[in-house]
Amino acid sequence: MQGVLAVFPQLDAVCDAIRDLKARKVPKVTVYSPTIHHEIDDAIDAPTSVVRVFTLIGASLGVTFGYWVSIWSSQYWPLQVGGKAIASWIPYTIMGFEMFVMVGCLSTVAGMFINAQIPRLVTNFGYDARFTHGDYGIWIETTPDKFAELEATLKSHGAVEVRGER
Amino acid sequence: MATTAKPVQGKIKRPNIPSAGIQVPAVSSFEQVDDEILATLKPSSKWFMGLGLAIAAMLVGASAWTYQIYWGLGNAGYVPPVMWGVYIITFVFWVGIGHAGTLISAILYLFRAGFRTTIYRASEAMTVFAVMTAGLFPIIHIGRPWKFFLLIPYPNWRLLFPQFKSPLLWDVFAISTYLTISTTFLYLGLIPDFAVMRDKETNPIRKRIFAMLSLGWKNTDREWRHFAKMYMFLAAFSTPLVLSVHSVVSFDFAMALTPGWHTTIFPPYFVGGAIFSGFAMVWTILIPIRKWWNLEHYVTLNHLDATAKVVLFTSIMVGSGYLSEFFIAWFSGVAPEQEYFWNRVFGQWWWAGWILLLCNMIFPLSLFSQKLRRNPTWLFILSIIINIGMWYERFVIVVPSLSHEFEPWQWTHYTPSWIDMCFLVGSFGWFFMWFLLFIKQMPVIAIAEVKEIVPPKMKNDHGGHH
Amino acid sequence: MSTESGATGVKRRDFLKILGVTSAATVVTGCSTDHVRKLIPYVSNPDNTVPGVSNYFASTCRECATSCGILVETRDGRALKIEGNPNAELNRGALCAKGQSALQGLYNPDRFRQPMARKNGQLTAVTWDDALQMLATKLGEVRSKGQAANAVFINQHEIGSFPAVLDNWLRDYGMPAHISYDADAPASAIAANKAAYGVAWPSLDFDAASLIVSFGADFLDGWGPAVPLQLAWADARGKVEGAPRAIYIGARRSLTGLNADAWIACRPGSELSIIQFLRGTKPVADAAAAADVSVATLEGLKKEIAGARRSLLLAGGNGVDSTQMATEVAEYNKTLGNVGITIKPASPLGIYERLDVSAAVFNAADRMNAGAVPLLFVRGANPVHTLPRSVKFAEGLAKVGFKVSFTNVPDETTELADLVLPDHHSLESWGDAEPTANTLHLQQPAMEPVFSTRATADVLIAVARMDTALASKYTMTDYRSWLASRFPGGQAAQMLALPKGVASASSLRATDRAAGDLGRKPSAAFAGAGDFHLVINPSPTLGTGAGANKPWLVELPDPVSKIAWQSWVEMHPMACKKLGLMRGDLVTIETSAGKVTLPVYNYLGIRPDTIAVSLGLGHKSQSNRKFDADGDRKVPFYSGYGRYAEGVGINAVDLVSGDTDALSGAIAYTSMKAKVTRTGENIDLITTEGSARQHSRGIGQASTLAALVAARTKKEGAPGATEGAATTQHDANAAEGGHELGPKEWGGNEHAFVGGAPTEFLPGLKSPVANDAQGDLGTQDSKDKGMYSEKHWSGMAKRRWAMTVDLSRCTGCSACVTACYSENNIPTVGATWQGRALSPTVWDTRPGANIIKGREMAWIRLERYFEGAEDSENVFDPGFDTRFVPMMCQHCGNAPCEPVCPVYATYHSPDGLNVQVYNRCVGTRYCSNNCPYKVRYYNWFGYGEPGRRQYAFPEPMQMQLNPDVTVRGKGVMEKCTFCVQRIREAETRADLEQRPLQADEFTTACAQACPSKAITFGDAADPTWTVARQVEDERAYHVFEVLNTYTAVVYLKKINHTVEA
After folding, report:
1. C638: pLDDT confidence band, cut at 50, 70 and 90?
2. A134 touches chain C (CB under 8 A)
3. pLDDT reported for residue C528
4. What are the pLDDT digits (tens) for C99-140?
5. Of A75, A91, A116, which residue is a domain's last?
6. What does pTM read for this prediction?
7. Residues of chain A positioned with their CB less than 8 A from the CB of B163
8. How far is CA C563 from the centre of its chain?
9. In B361, C133, C309, C609, which residue has its Cα 20 to 30 A from C666's Cα atom?
10. C635 pLDDT more than 90
């Protein structure tokens, strides 16, 4: 895997660079930032995360299970307690709710992991420790022949360092 | 991660939470954030002393438990029909403590309350450990702890499952869900910070560990995108939990027909009380931390002031709860009910009743004065008072009702015994042991989130710092 | 189980006939304590034994001289439970707490396990041969020295052939007839009866009376033949209409007094002037002055007696002039023409035949002190404990040449003996008794001896046969064969009679001893100084001390004060206020004889100028001589009266001056003055009583005849029985000024059942049949009802087990409690080693420590509520009313305890039982919190776990445990099960015999034992059962009806008989 890694100290610099790259239709661009910045979201203008789908599925499975396990188990072995209905759904709402929350959350997390591609084993490639500290970065996966051109573009937007990795 | 709204095209909207300039004026750059917060992780002698103390206390509880499992519950102070005592009281107390953390990290997050940014990590950790503590007590309290698994709907060959109509089983579900979710919430919030620590770390082994904990987090745009969404949903899930968990706990009482328990006001009134005591505990924890680890410019007086307002509000909420209970007892015309409430303030249990009223209703009124709201020392003292008051609230709910029920022949009294106290001490030991271990391994303030409000460097700078 | 035997399923009577034929074989081969130690079943069954099925042996109770007929349930050769023998007319299947506790005498861990002889100051185990040899030689010596005539034999008073046999034996050795001693006997009444009616004890007919006046005769506190008297009383009072009104005259309102409708609180000893006034020999003013009651009261009493259709006057009392009083009362009975109608000298009871007066023992003591007694025998009796110190019995013993004890448990007297020849327990021995003329109660062993003991009768015979001079006279091999030989029809006839336990024959009569001079001292009017009259009364359960080594009895709260494991002094709240005493304050009570320190119990039912102390406790080793622990004794030896009595309470006899009733020679217990001084200390009263007041919660309800009648007239036109019953209650309460029924006070509307069951109630029983109270199971469209369906093959859902408790019968005697303990393996928790840890290493060793913490385990408890006399601190008001309420699990149709259990450890069975599953229980105790009746009990310690210090069944007591009932481990909740084991046994037996369960064919332990027949158990869904009729009674009500628990226990109101009624 080969590509160009650029380090930017300033936020607006990296944003300009992103817009420029988009204009040039450069593929496989990854942006690094120490924290969330709307400027960057705005510049990238990515589609909405699909995590919410996982949430929906998980939560509905959860609530179903919650009700099912309590109702089925009481029906399977009918025992009278305090003159209550054998399967009394009103109290069982609590099981439904708790399972709704539990499974909903866990599936959301799973969704995030899948989409964000973590856990990730290798972090040393196309990455710089400065990105967790203070600086912003852009990583473009591309072939060596495009290096020169891209380097120029990134520099022009104020990259303090541009290095090709191969 | 405080901002998830997709901004309007073209003109950039600033995140709609107060920026560092307003919140933490003393913090100017990302580098400063990293250095100052990671600095708190260096172990100090004070910390070792604290940890030693906590472990000692924890061991007191642990040995008490072995003793109790061997001999049976008889050594505790129970006087039938007072079949629930210090254990259940302490259980409710700790569950209550937990709620503030989730409230701060989830509800305030959705409400975009700025003052949560620097205090949420600590309180979230507090939640997790408080629930861990609370979770022990139902098991300590039951007569045959080794049979606890019967409360879990595990598949067994007879397919005989627990009794889902029992409030105690609802507890099992509520508490386990709560523990799972708050732990997940805490850990995911930590991932970006683990990444920071990984990259700062020089010691290869620690670096490796942090690398694993950070799951190879790289701060890429795609990570942030899904992360933000996920975090928002978790907050959305935790929000109802804050209300539900303590409502379910209150059902343990409200579902019984015992005078003083059999009332519909309990859920809101328990939740109010939980948040009340939780914020108090946040003070108990944060005020020393900010002082000893020089974080005053992160957790500022403004933050304390804001939390103080929450405490004042919930205190009034709880107080009106008490008063309406008395009214309803009078209004119902039910003799056992009335006798119970009379007992609570003038009868057998007057002292407990007044401790409760003073600590939870009267003293917090002092927070109407801004001077006191901005006085850490007073807030710390008040936090202790409130914690005591809230423990007694549960005492007043559990014991006097049981000691003075329908059947006069079985009216009785109750005094906790030495072993009850061992468990109370032990629970604090257990809680603080975990908390102290936490604050020296993981950043007690969310690095990535603070960076978010700190103005970033700009090429053509408007007001940003260099 | 109780009315049927398990063996072959035939009715018990037939079964016992069969059993009888081979009962001898059974006795010999069937019950071996060796077998019971193994858990393996018999390789070859002895006849009539089916493992796991009980055998019943008819025998005779020896706990008091009444000699009730009993049935001893045995399983695999060990006695499990004692119940009254329904064949015995005397007690009609009922049995008191004392009688049932005989088992704990049998299995008492402190029993002598073999004969003992004193070697260098220590009682040491010896073999029977050596022991008998020793006795024989001693007898020889005494006889050769010609001192035989000075020997003394003190025997615990009993009736039957043995006293006569004993006298004959003594005569053969040239020794005087034995002293038959009974510290509990009502001497004054006996003397008066002899004087007035010519018999020791005429039978009394409460039923024929319309007015009962008791001059301190505590016929419900163990005065006279307890069970027969209680049965008669309950039957009379039970018939609501035409039931006799009862008036109690005395300084202290005893259990009898509390059951009476009115109490005339006269000064102690003034009963005499009252009866004299009634007989017109004393002007009313003087009588009133002496008795310190108003003239109006006395006039009223006289008017009532005159107006009564038929009256019954009883006189007891233990004062210096009680005999005179009793005699006058007897004379008055004659004047009123009660003799022959309510008092029947023609059909006397045998109970006090050949009883010696206490003076006889006094004289013996004097002779002992004079050193004139070479040889002394004691059997069963414990004079060192029961006699006043001034008699100096213990000192006298020291001067006796040789002391032989036949007692089988260590006690204060026996521990001073030189030779101990432990007698069999009555459940291990043969014998007979003639409680009523020409009716013989047979006594047979129910099991092989637990330890190496021998029946005294057999010992006597054996010794005689060793003696060359007498051998010829004693041809019989043992006492049993002798009994058989003199039984009309011989051995064969006896064999046939044994299973029934009753035969029409008579025992060998003994001739009364010459009484000797009565009264050692001229009886002063009131001995001692002090501002309080002191009344000392025998405890209804512990007597004068015999019960103190049986945990069931010590843990059984006193029916009046509800205090257990402790002695107390009763003082009126006014007196307490005057002296500034709180409940539980320690005071020192000092009389001319001695002083004791006791906690105060402020009691409404005693005159403000009087204090009362109960006998029965305070056993202590006179000489702290320890016995050497013999081979298989794994436990530390307890001197005195055994581990359960050690250090419990004080002995009120220490206060007794020793004055006697000049006419009867009886010790005067109530004619002393006492000084009361406060110590300033306060201790916990070991009581089960929370609040003695009902706070208008309608637990024990009462009504009057007038109210009932009024209600009936209203009832015409009311639709259903339910309606009717409901209306009845409320009118009845209205008639009493409405201070009764809880619901009203609670603002609930008692007519409408909020959230009532979907389908109709059983008539009367305001509680739905189990399976249709129950939510969607009750509705027609509900799916699978499982076992709850009427159509289910088990048919369980067709039944509804229920119970009624008739409060107009219940006297609060608490026999049901003991029955429950013995049937359901309930641990006693008050012993000194059962307390909790006060620190990791220090244990609370106070007796009753657990009960101070409210942790008694009684599944059925007797609540005692007072009504009226609210301002007792300032006013003395004798006119208060008492309600005794047996409270056990109510088996609610909608039980609050069930839905809160997270693990189904408690749920509702299709036949209406509230089931508790011990091995499912995790011990959250939520069920107890949610139980309005507070009838669930929790195992705080491992009471059932051998090796724990709190273990409640020290060897060999575990032999008594009922194999049908689990012994609960620690951390488990338990409660009344309606004796589910009996229900299932009966059902199973019916199935085996392919027949339906018959009405009333079995009942619960409490109902079976109840000497008032107040409890009825059965299937309320089946109209043929008695309970189904009872629940429709106009007096029926449910406790805490407003809570909609639909209880299966229905109480019938107590009826207070007012003057008009």
Report:
1. low
2. no
3. 66
4. 999 999 999 988 988 899 998 878 888 999 999 999 999 999
5. A116
6. 0.91
7. 79, 81
8. 15
9. C609
10. no
Round to whole Å and give the CA distance between C740 and C700: 9
Residue B17 lies in a domain: no
- Count structural domains, chain B: 1
Q: From the list B163, B411, B419, which residue is nearest C690 (CB)? A: B411
> pLDDT at residue C390 above 70?
yes
Task: Please judge whether C894 and A78 are an interchain contact, meaning their C-beta atoms are less than 8 angstroms apart.
Answer: no
Pairing of strands C419-420, C262-264: unpaired
Most confident of C19-28, C181-190, C1033-1042: C181-190
Question: ipTM for the complex?
Answer: 0.92
Average pLDDT over residues C773-796: 62
B321: which 2 tokens?
């709860």
Query: Does the beta-carbon distance from C775 to A79 stay under 8 Å?
Result: no
- Residue in B with minimal Cα distance to A101: B237
> How does strand A136-141 pair with strand A3-8?
antiparallel
| Parallel/antiparallel/unpaired status of strands C402-405 and C672-682 | unpaired
Is the omega angle on the peptide bond into residue B81 within 30 degrees of 0, that is, cis? yes
- What is the count of structural domains for chain A? 2
C807-to-B54, C820, C878, C1012, C1053 alpha-carbon distances in Å: 59, 19, 21, 10, 6
Q: Tell me the C-alpha distance between C469 and C903, whole Å.
A: 76
Instruction: For the beta carbon of residue B48, count every other beta carbon within 10 angstroms.
Output: 12
Q: Report the distance separating Cα C450 and Cα C958, nearest Å.
A: 12
Domain containing B326 equals 23-152+174-452
Q: Do B84 and C745 touch (CB under 8 A)?
A: no
Of the candidates B403, B137, B412, B142, the residue with the CA atom closest to the CA atom of residue B260: B403
A132 touches chain C (CB under 8 A): no
- Structure confidence at residue B321 as a pLDDT band (50, 70, 90): very high
| For testing contact with chain B, the best of A101, A120, A135 (most B CBs within 10 A) | A101
Q: Which residues of C touch A81 (CB under 8 A)?
A: 895, 898-899, 901, 904, 906-908
Domain boundary (A98, A116, A134) is at: A116
Which residues have a Cβ under 8 Å from the Cβ of C608 and sit 6 or more positions away? C572, C574, C575, C578, C876
Asked if A101 and A126 sit in the same domain, the reply is no
Host H or E run for residue B337: helix B335-345
pLDDT value of position C718: 47
Residue B367 lies in a domain: yes
Q: Do C786 and A81 touch (CB under 8 A)?
A: no
- Chains adjacent to B (≥3 CB pairs closer than 8 angstroms): A, C
3-state SS, chain A, equals CCEEEEEECCHHHHHHHHHHHHHCCCCCEEEECCCCCHHHHHHHCCCCCCHHHHHHHHHHHHHHHHHHHHHHHHHHCCCECCCCCCCCHHHHHHHHHHHHHHHHHHHHHHHHHHHHCCCCCCCCCCCCCHHHHCCEEEEEECCHHHHHHHHHHHHHCCCCEEEEEC
Q: For residue C529, count CB atoms less than 10 angstroms from its CB and return exposed for 0-12, middle for 13-18, buried for 19 or more.
A: exposed
A108, A113, A122: best to mutate for the B interface, most B CBs within 10 A = A108
- B9 part of a folded domain: no
Select the residue of B173, B228, B460 nearest A94 (Cβ to Cβ): B173
Whether B256 and C696 lie within 8 Å, measured CB to CB: no
Q: Provide the pLDDT for residue C1060.
A: 58
Report chain B's terminal Cα–Cα distance, integer Å.
24
Q: Which residues contact B339 (CB under 8 A, 6 or more apart)?
A: B259, B347, B404, C695
Q: What is the DSSP letter of C513?
A: P
Q: How far is C905 from chain B (nearest CA, A)?
A: 9
Domain of A157 in residue numbering reads as 3-47+122-165
Q: What is the pLDDT of residue C191?
A: 92
Among B69, B79, B83, the residue to mutate for chain C (most C Cβ within 10 A): B83
